[in-house]
Amino acid sequence: MSTRERRDRSNKFDRELSLLFQESLTKNQISSQSIALAAVGGFGRGELSPGSDIDITLIHDGKVKNLDQFVNDFLYPLWSTGTAADHSVRTLGELSEVAQSDVRVILGLLDLRYLAGNSELTGNAETLALRLWQKNIKNYLPQIKSSIIERTERSGELAFLLEPDLKEARGGLRDANILRALSKSNLIQVPFERV
Prior knowledge:
4-stranded mixed β-sheet, 7 helices, single chain, 4 strands, alpha+beta, 12% strand
């Protein structure tokens, strides 16, 4: 699937999710200034491949009434169509806490992209994620190394497989994304033109 086709898929879901988000806000009488919808991970990068989950996060100010009902009203129509959506619902403080201990969360947040609601909340989350990544990069490196070793043992090396897992195998898309994230750390320079 081409880059353009993946971007078109992402754009389609951007529109659908934004509409569902607005409908759920209205139904639950919640101000759009209290909550934001953002794409993370591959969806955040606009690289939505067939079979990929839609990774989203709802960032709220901690004062939203009926938050559980809002989340249900937002997600159930999506799930009823068979769409696989991985989601989180957090305040900025909760995002910070989880991101400091889970490398997968921080890696997803580095690709955060605003979809709907309060853009300031999303902007603050982007700034927070980058700051945490740069500040704690040396703490994340052992987790990254461990995940690479585990994936290589499970999926092999891309260059030497007849039917490789393009996402998980060593040298695949996950490794390219890790290189992209490492370049944001200011710890090392990644020569993307060679990659």
